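Hi team,

Filling in the usual template for the complex we talked about on Friday. All components are listed, including any nucleic acid strands or ligand strings, so the model treats them as one assembly.

SUBMITTER: L.P.
PURPOSE: interface mapping
COMPONENTS: two
RESIDUES: 583
SEQUENCES:
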Amino acid sequence: MKRLQVDIRQRRPVPLEARFHCRGGELLALVGPSGSGKTSVLRCIAGLHHPAGRIVCGGEVWLDDALGIALPPQRRRVGFVFQDYALFPHLTVLQNLTLACRLPGDRAREKARRWLRRVHLAGLEDRRPDTLSGGQRQRVALARAMMRDPDVILLDEPFSAVDQVTRRRLRLEMAELKRTLRIPMILVTHDLEEAEMLADRMALIHRGRILQQGSPAEVMLRPVDAEAARLVDVRNLFRGRVIAVDRERRRCRLRWDAGELEAPWCESIPVGATVDWCIPPAGLLLHSRRRPSRGVRENPVRGRIVEIVRFGGRAQLVLAPVAAPEKRLHLDLSQHVVERNRLAVGEPVGVSLLSRFIHLMPPRRR
Amino acid sequence: MDWQAFGVSLRLAAWTVALLLPMALLLARLLAWRRFPGRLVVEAVIALPLVLPPSVLGFYLLVLFNPGAPLGRWFMETTGTTLVFSFPGLVLASLIYSLPFAVQPLLRAFQAIPRQLREAAWCSGLGPWRTFWKIELPLARGGLLSALVLSFTHTLGEFGVVLMVGGNIPGRTRTLAVAIYDRVQAFDEAAAGRMSLSLLIFSLIAVMAVFAVERRR
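RESULT (copied from the run log):
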């Protein structure tokens, strides 16, 4: 199976420093805010931009500035789905597809029809792009990208130009297609949910630099530092100081604004170190008001509810700890838990910060 | 109606358009997508015939075409005829004079093509030449038609430069516009009127056709 290896860097026009790989059949999501350089990375892979460094796909060198190799886009077998699809407006759907294929007329048309059936667009062969819906355009763009039998598929925010309902459907279709493909797939997105849903691996990119790579769960729950945590929208992000360490149990005591906590410990953090730490909303356990459970002894924090946001059967609770009322703790609950416990804004509650969910980030020097 | 002059005008316009369009396509494409030093100067020089009095342009061309000047001498040595007061000289002058009328609409048309479409073509495996034929040219066809019609009609009605460079030789350099001037000088107002009206109607239809195309885009 083909494998894509990227190791690129540049200073101008925008700083870029990215090193990653993507195996055949794997989908890697490049995630970051607007302007972080994710699209630039895609453009470098496609050959639309030539940075310094090296790009190898399936053993074929596409870029190597040391050897003076920089293949043009035509000679890199990429399937590129552009953000606004870039369909050729003067051509029909079928022509958009056949143009991307070097087979002779009849065979190209047969192949195009096969791809159109596969993306559920049979019957629309003779339509022009301006008569299609956003979702249909996206599927045409995807089919066109596949017509070249690409060695790698590049998706630049492919679901951003459609409404939410269509987006959900297209994501499912993408997941289905992904299972059948044996080539590396790179998805650029700023949507974390999308990355979590589709990606096998995720690379967090900011200011042209890759901050962290790993499985979506790892990147979302165990960010390498506060900056990465903010980028993946970690809501419970705080600062604290390690005051004691139990090397045998690999645990430590952590002092923060609202008291002391027990947390997992790793070698790189010395006693006395100031650390950033985070905990996902799922790591906060609400103390039942009627039947206190055993869990209440684990890192208890008393607080007052300052906000309840309800949506789709779930409720997002925001607490202000009594010992640090300027801080905010976020937890997600089912709506029925909110109702059963008669939770309301202003009410006092107790929560446990489950130790195994606490993640400490050693301060990094850059 | 001076049919001979009409024939010269048509021949001149046809030659000018045939030679000008490929040149204008190249220039417009270059100006639309490339950044290079001296771009501003190139743009200004191309637009210059729009604002320069035809007599000024005609004067400089006359100097340039003179067998004493390098270009004139080269042409004389190569073909055995002079550039001044000849049909080839007239064509060359028309190329320069009509350049902005061909380049400007094409430039606007190329600039309107989103960069992503060309990139999508490259990423679909199309080389520069196929991208030009299959994507750029079809998308710029409105501009191409405007360029064709504008440069054709403009050459047809050209007067000042033609008179300066070509003179008034019947069958060779006397165009319809020069013939009209000639008839007025000879107090033959009826003939001048007929020729003027035909040129007016032709130009009006041509310009309306351009506007219709622009509107449809």
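MY TAKE: The domain at 3-216 of chain B is CATH 1.10.3720.10 (MetI-like fold). The mean pLDDT of chain B is 89.

Thanks, L.
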